[in-house]
Amino acid sequence: MTSTPYYITTAIAYPNGTPHIGHAYEAIAADVMARFKRLDGFDVRFMTGTDEHGQKMQTTAAKLNKTAKELADENSARFREMDEMLGVSFDRFIRTTDEDHYPASQAIWKKMEEAGDIYLDKYAGWYSIRDEAYYAEDETELRDGQRYAISTGTEVEWTEEESYFFRLSKYQDRLLELYETEGFIFPETRRNEIASFVRGGLNDLSISRTTFDWGVPVPGNDKHVMYVWVDALTNYITGLGYPDTDTELFQKFWPADLHLIGKDISRFHSIYWPAFLWSAGLELPKRVFAHGFLLVDGEKMSKSVGNVVDPADLVSSFGLDPLRFFLLREVSFGQDGSYSAEGIKNRINSDLANDLGNLAQRSLSMIAKNCGRAVPYHGDFTAEDQKMLDDAAALYEPVREDFDHQAFHKALERIWHVVADANRYFTAQEPWKLKRTDEERMKTVLYVTAEVIRQVALLVQPVMPTSMAKMLDLLGVAEDQRMFADRNKALEPGTELPKPAPVFPRYEEPKEA
Ligand code: ME8
Candidates 132, 238, 263, 265: which one to mutate for ligand 1, based on the most atoms within 8 Å of Cβ? Predict the structure, then answer.
């Protein structure tokens, strides 16, 4: 049986600085989605990387007395290290300075040109280097003699140069129809925002620059480099071997199933990208999902405020799996969320140590003491036992639904309901008393609890891969029995178990040195 392909990408980050927690958030969310699909039997391709051209890179490098390429090399390596530290299971880490990216970008350009969608003219208007974006006059405001983009608050500068244009205006109606019929961009709030922007009228888009040279050369005119967003968006198909669309890789994985990006770049992904693809005669990705922004203690991260959080510090303070869990459980995916040290400590101590950790610890240590360190043999199930088992087994379908909508927080909430029920079940059954009065019944209760933990651990694997692997080891579940398709293979009584060990210790404040 061939499995269904699933192609997921993150945005590719600008390596003009080092990665922060917002980048980590996106990488983790995409990784969780990719792992979920793999466990669900899909043939997954997952790509992430860095976006290395453009004026922002060039000016930052100049300030640091470096070449843009040197800056890109240094920081791209930091992003890759971050991904590795976070357990991000990418298949390719693409850099837009990779050799195959130039021919891909030039090929899509030529296709758009052949379609009659590119013409030479002159651009005169506002440009934000920070956003690498053009703004119409009415999208900017003047404050103290400096003009800023209203939506992002970044400085804009007047730019006048010869430029190639893309006939974006031509695609206005088709774009509106796309949002109307396919949804295309999620969540709904973003779609409404984008649709209303497009309804307001689209201008043709300036797609080349002449005042600097750090970019992909425009085919046939070396004075121009491509506007960074043209080559940046193309990364998604470079990664599949474009312009060769006949390869197995391209045939299998294009169109992408999901571009996971942040809300600040939804315009580029849901207006420009579909228009470029139509123009080049390529299919559109099935979905663009724009997640919210991660704030720190409720505030926007900024170098000047000094509240930029380095993901490596969080991993060393709290551990990787708790961080991954916290980010996806705490924030409603699609909305803005806030990181705080208090928040993560609370989640560790309540959801992880108290709820799931304690349930596993209590039941597994009783099994070790009283059942010869093997999965207990059980008697007939009571109605309560059966309900508990059924509730755990019934998690898979709705959790899969949640994941298909990128509602990670909902899936985790749903799973933790069952964990709470299992804790109540365990407490109400009092197996420690049954030990003296009815040993068979005690074993049945321990069996039911262990089986519920197995179901939970299977589904939580994408979010906390290392901890759940440990938990499944403790339950004696073989490594090749951990796909979602294995969920109906209940624990086998008599299976030998390893010595129990806590999976989620409580968070303790580090002692003063
Ligand atoms: O936008 N919270 O790169 P980038 C959550 N190169 N997400 C955040 C965030 C925060 N505080 N800050 C940034 C670019 N992000 C382009 C993308 S794709 C073809 C080109 C997200 O380094 C942001 O929304 O500014 C984006 O999805 C990603 O991090 C990279 O941002």
Answer: 265
Residue 290, C-beta contacts closer than 8 angstroms, at least 6 positions apart: 185, 186, 187, 190, 261, 262, 263, 265, 266, 269, 334
* Cβ of 54 less than 6 Å from ligand 1: no
Element (H, E) at 45: strand 43-50
Substitution site in 10, 14, 308 for ligand 1 pocket (most atoms within 8 Å of beta carbon): 14
Q: Is the CB of 184 under 6 A from ligand 1?
A: no
Q: What are phi and psi of 121, to 5 degrees?
A: -155, -155
| Total residues found in the chain within this entry | 513
Query: Taking the CB of residue 469, how many other CB atoms lie within 10 A of it?
Result: 16
Q: If you measure from the C-alpha of residue 450 to the centroid of ligand 1, how many angstroms do you get, rounded to a whole number?
A: 41
Tokens 């692997």 map to which residue?
469
CA distances from 80 to 12, 19, 45, 77 (A): 11, 10, 17, 5
pTM score of the predicted model: 0.97
167 exposure class (CB count in 10 Å sphere: 0-12, 13-18, 19+):
middle
pLDDT tens string 170-208: 999 999 999 998 889 999 999 999 999 999 999 999 999
Q: Is 22 in the pocket of ligand 1 (CB under 6 A)?
A: yes
**What are φ and ψ of residue 204, in 5° steps?**
-65, 155
pLDDT tens digit string along 87-145? 999 999 999 999 999 999 999 999 999 999 999 999 999 999 999 999 999 999 999 99
Q: Which residue's alpha carbon is nearest to atom 23 within ligand 1? A: 262
Residue 184 and residue 200: Cα distance in Å, rounded? 19
* Nearest alpha-carbon partner for 456 in 49, 188, 448: 448
CA angle 136, 142, 145 (to 5 degrees): 130
